[in-house]
Each structure stands twice: as C-alpha cells, then as structure tokens.
Amino acid sequence: IGSPLLPLTPRRPAPWKGVDVLFVALVYLVSHIACQFVVARYMPGLSGSGVDSAGQFTAALAIGVVASLTACGFAVIWLSIHRHVTAEDLGWHTDSLLADVRLGLVAFAAVAAPVYGLQAFLSQFVEEQHPIIEILQQHPSALLYALGGLSAVVVAPLAEEFFFSRLAARLAGSGDRAA
pLDDT (tens digit, 9 = 90+) per residue, 22-51? Predict the structure, then answer.
C-alpha cells in the first residue's frame, strides 16, 4: 500500500498545439459532411424519409467510422510532418506491447465480474434497451454487426485516446502521464 499500481512512464510534452487540435476537429467535421453528401448523392437508398431505421443507422455508423478514421489518419500525418511527432508521442510503444496486453487482460478480469454482475442486477429493474441493440435484434445484418464492432472496438478507443487522453495532457500543460 502506498505505491502506485503502475509506474509513471515519463514522456516528453505533447508537441502539438491547440491550433493543431482545432484543425483536426475541422477535418473531422468536413469529412463527416462529405460522407453525408456522398451517401445522399450516390446512395439514395440509404438516406431519406423512406429508409428504415436499420438502413439509416447503418449509413450513420459507416459515416462516423469513415470520418473518425479519416480525422485520425490525417492527424497522424499532419502531426508527423508539422510537429515531428513520434510513435511514442502518440502512445504507441511497441517495446511494451505484450506487457500492455497482459495488463489489459488482468484489468478486464478484475472488473468484468462486478460490472457484468451490476448490469445483470440493474437489468431486472430497467426494461429499456439501447437503440443499437433494438435495431440489431430487429434487423440482424453482418454489415451492421461489423460496423458496430469496428466502431466500438477500434474507432472509438483510437479517437478517444488521441482526442482526450493525449490532448487533455497537452491542454493541461503536461505531457507526462502514466502509460
């Protein structure tokens, strides 16, 4: 007791600036609008008032995935060229990949039972389901499952890590945090 669970891994301060963050956010918005335009123009069957909720949800999810991946890819390229970021600046440490995976599995094992137990308990009192679950139950589709999985497992964590974890450290004035 008294010692940290994870040792502090010092990092150099994040080399990007607030203007870089705003520029990447603008790229996200523009790519989101461009994707919406493409869907409306070239795939009218996925937009409009006559489309079922599953079709609209699939289109919206695909748009979000493409816009997020575009913004993250642009951010990596932009920051590499203009701010000379390294893989370590972005939180990518290949030397500790196995240890990080092991730590993630241990953390999952530690929290899975209480979280799933609480969910099972609370589901006895709440009858509502998430709209995504309802759409998947009503209209099961391999594409919808794939997009949902890609969005939840790859895109959301990637965007969250870039925009919130590392940017929060930068905006707070500190580039050091535990890895």
Answer: 888 898 899 889 988 887 777 766 555 545
> Average model confidence (pLDDT) for the chain?
79
Contacts 24+ apart (CB under 8 A), 49-58: 52/139, 53/135, 53/139, 54/135, 54/138, 54/139, 54/141, 54/144, 57/131, 57/132, 57/135, 57/144, 58/141, 58/143, 58/144, 58/147
DSSP 93-108: -GGGHHHHHHHHHHHH
- Residue 138 belongs to what H/E stretch? helix 131-138
CB-based contacts of 82-90 (< 8 A; 24+ apart in sequence): 82/20, 83/15, 83/16, 83/17, 83/20, 84/15, 85/15, 85/16, 88/11, 89/11, 89/12, 89/14, 89/15, 89/166, 90/162, 90/166
